[in-house]
Amino acid sequence: MTTESTERIPLLPDVQRFVDRSHRLLIDGAWVDSASGQTFESVDPSTGERLATVAFAGERDVDRAVDAARRSLSGPWGAIGPADRERILHRLADLMEEHADELAQLESLDNGKPLAFARLVDVDLSISHFRYYAGWPRKIAGQVLPVSVPDMHCHTRLEPVGVCAQIVPWNFPLLMAAWKVAPALAAGCAVILKPAEQTPLTALRLGELALEAGVPAGVLNVLSGDGTTGAALVRHLDVDKIAFTGSTEVGREIGAIAGRNLKRVTLELGGKSPNVILPDADPAAATRGAFEAIYFNSGQSCTAGSRLFVQRDQYDDVVSALADTARATVPGPGLAPDTFLGPVISEGQRARVLEYVNAGTAEGAELVAGGSAVSGPGYFVEPTVFSATSDDLTIAREEIFGPVVVALPYDDLDEVIERANATRYGLAAGIWTTDLRAAHRFADKVRAGSIYINCWQPSDAAAPFGGVKDSGVGREHGYEGLSQYLESKTVWTNLGADNA
Fold first, then answer.
1. Which residues pair with 155 in a beta bridge?
2. Potential cystine with 303: which of 55, 268, 428, 452 (Cβ 3.0-4.6 Å)?
3. β-bridge partners, 239
4. CA distances from residue 299 to 163, 304, 468 in whole angstroms, order as listed
């Protein structure tokens, strides 16, 4: 298979100017070179060619950014009232909306995802997150406690955690930044945002818009770099809270360091999500849902429906229909107008996906569709369908993070619930059915942070998101997400006569 030779949508002039210039670090309200002068290249995964040159932050830059964030908390940001935090967040959302098409093109270029998805999902949901959390600053309140101690007034205050290191992945770069930055700023924290080295551009543009919106110097710092930059942030003793989205393996290391240093930590990690089709479901709708659950964002989603369970009597028909749709789906560049399936993020990620494909065939799974790299420039992989009979295969157990689904037959609901839970992950699970009792039994018994019934991965800033088991610690979105950036302080006041 080769990619379609579809003409790309031309870049907006502002996007072209942005990618053509060298990019610096945002520290203490100023754009500065890295202390070492080191840079790296961001690559367009649709072509494999250099996209932009970006500063590489080292330990000295981390020190500068953390110091700037700490000083901002004792400066204007620490003294600013909740109404002003609300105003700034709304202004930032307004600016993102004004530049939405520009942000979408930058995301599509840097990540490879289809432009329509970048605009309607990544950018629009990012704006929604800033608008949602802009409504919180004047609603953050402690409470008066009915304590039993005589002549005592006891109340709590909710205060910002402090300096937050936020490390975001390359699959949804702008959206993951919004998930973290918006609640942190609403709570009054200061942030050092570290985007993935593969996709730094929208984080840097977000930093520019934040300054324009009136975010004070030092409150939002943006450090581009690789894992060593993130590690320096995680180890830094003056960072109060770490928020990380990424692999379970790296999350374990971050959690261990945070535990030793007694830091607050939120971890949104990997998944191997089961997607179950019951025999009473509309087979066409369920198959279409299964297709979108795995191939959206080229399978590069922690909630991808990568384990597809189909009741044995319908199994062959569903797998055949899914494979036919996969074969008819031709990968293409994100800026081509008709692309549904873009490239994977890098040459290394493509090699990783193909290693899993080879492992699947070597272990006896049937390769029904796809399974190969796409010839031509860029890092494209065919949408791939495996049929298997064992949950013990590598491709059925491990997170592939690519456009590969493993279909597995089952016989009854109790069996598939048990098999759905037989994984170290617990991020998401879905079921397609018209039987409400079966749907709610599934939702009750399956251990996962999110359950999707007759849908896959809807998202809203108000709805908590996160996982259990190896899929993470803590929640993002909603008040639960905001609470990760707040500390409770208890205040006792003696009202006795002798102290009047």
1. 144, 491
2. 428
3. none
4. 33, 6, 21
Same structural domain for residues 356 and 429? yes
Instruction: Please answer whether residues 16 and 9 qualify as being in contact, where contact means their C-beta atoms are separated by less than 8 angstroms.
Output: no
Here the CATH number for the domain that contains residue 45 is: 3.40.605.10
| Look-up of token digits 């429906």 | 305
Domain span at residue 377 reads 274-453
CA 69 – CA 61 distance, rounded (Å): 12
Residue 274, CA atoms < 13 Å, CB-side half-sphere: 30
Residues 235, 286 within the same domain: no
The 3-state DSSP class for residue 228 equals helix
Same domain, 424 and 482: no
Shortest CA distance to 161 belongs to which of 499, 488, 486, 494?
486
Q: Which of 200, 170, 202, 164 is nearest to 183 (CA)?
A: 164
Residue 346 pLDDT exceeds 80: yes
Residues classed as catalytic: 268
Structure tokens at 269: 């990690």
Q: At what angle do helices 100-111 and 201-213 cross, to 10 degrees?
A: 160
CA–CA distances in Å: residue 277 to residues 126, 286, 318: 31, 7, 9
Give the span between the Cα atoms of 473 and 1, in whole angstroms: 41
Count other C-beta atoms under 10 Å from residue 4's C-beta.
13
309 and 197 in a common domain = no
Same domain, 40 and 182: yes
Of 455, 453, 478, 447, the closest CA to residue 465 belongs to 478
Count of domains observed in the chain: 2
Q: pLDDT-derived band of residue 4, with 50, 70 and 90 as boundaries?
A: low
